[in-house]
Amino acid sequence: RQGPVYRSSTTAPVNIAVIKYWGKRDATLNLPTNSSLSVTLSQASLRTHTTASCSAHYAAHEGDSLLLNGSAEPIQHSPRTQACLGQLRSLRSSLEASDPSLPKLSGLPLHIVSTNNFPTAAGLASSAAGFAALVRSIADLYALPQSATELSRIARQGSGSACRSLMGGYVAWRAGSAADGSDSLADEVAPPAHWPQMRALVLVVSAAKKHLPSTAGMQVTVKTSSLFPTRADVVVPRRMQNMEQAIRARDFDAFARLTMQDSNGFHAVCLDSWPPIAYLNDVSRAAVRVVEAINQQSTDAGAGLLAAYTFDAGPNAVVYYLERDTERVAGVFRALLGNERVEGWEGSYGQDIKPAEMEE
Ligand code: PMV
Questions:
Q1: Closest ligand 1 atom to 123 CA
Q2: Taking every annotated instance into account, which residue ranges of this chain make up the domain Mvd1 C-terminal (predicted)?
Q3: Would the ipTM clear 0.90, i.e. be above it?
Q4: Domain-ending residue, one of 130, 164, 194
Q5: How many A from CA of 123 to the centre of ligand 1?
Q6: What is the pTM (predicted TM-score) of this model?
Q7: Would 81 disulfide with which of 75, 100, 161, 321, CB 3.0-4.6 Å?
């Protein structure tokens, strides 16, 4: 069969939440029980690169395919990937209906090739960057006019946190209240240039794929944790407001306190679940103690907090700090890692990561 190959490539960065998404009110549409807020990290260190292509040359019987880090993923059996592909196709098909001169791409099989420059599924938010890059590359291939916020509705259905990786800087995912998820969208609270001194240090405690997947964990927490309703209904809505205020005011002391409180609150509802979910290990707790020691020195001297730890659904630590405190935060961790005084570290990724600028 004749015809060109249409192709588009993009990269999407990882985002690390400072107010955590934990709990689904609708598991099919990935609608959250609470809003969340994250910092999108620079693409230099943690990102997914994705190329989407389609062509009449591609064998129709083989259908759509996804190669992730060199291995074929069974996307035919992934309702989440299918939801994203189906919605992107239907937007393209409406475009084609309104402009008959456009090539009919919506009917062609898609080949998607994706690579991460960091360990997949190690609690480093690979699914967030992965689904954001998938949605963005196909939206570009299809020349869709939808904004990043509109595309966040689609990426959300791949992986909830993916909706926050379509924007750079400081990004909120508003839980919304509509049953169809039409108002459960991400928006940019502040661009990276608003607070460019922000840095993150990612400490890889374990790159192994062994933690409980987030969807399964969330369901157990929502069903069994007695602390959970207070977190979702009372604590997080207030914290979202305070966090947005801290970001607007570039108040690192408040940002750091809220970040650590929310990470601890999230891990507390995990431990309060039955069976209990424990994502942190002894090495994670050692990282907490290092951050506490750094902050103690600073507060003893009458200054504010210098560092904030946060942990997702795994043992790896992300530590936020400001550029001016690089030596006092990243320097301390570097010295500890370099001297191998903390057993169990597998290394660090993207030290001194800045908030991302998104390419248009
Ligand atoms: O997007 P998911 O389903 O992988 O869930 C992510 C959940 C956390 O990373 C623990 C929190 C968050 O808001 O990113």
A1: 9
A2: 200-360
A3: yes
A4: 194
A5: 9
A6: 0.93
A7: 75
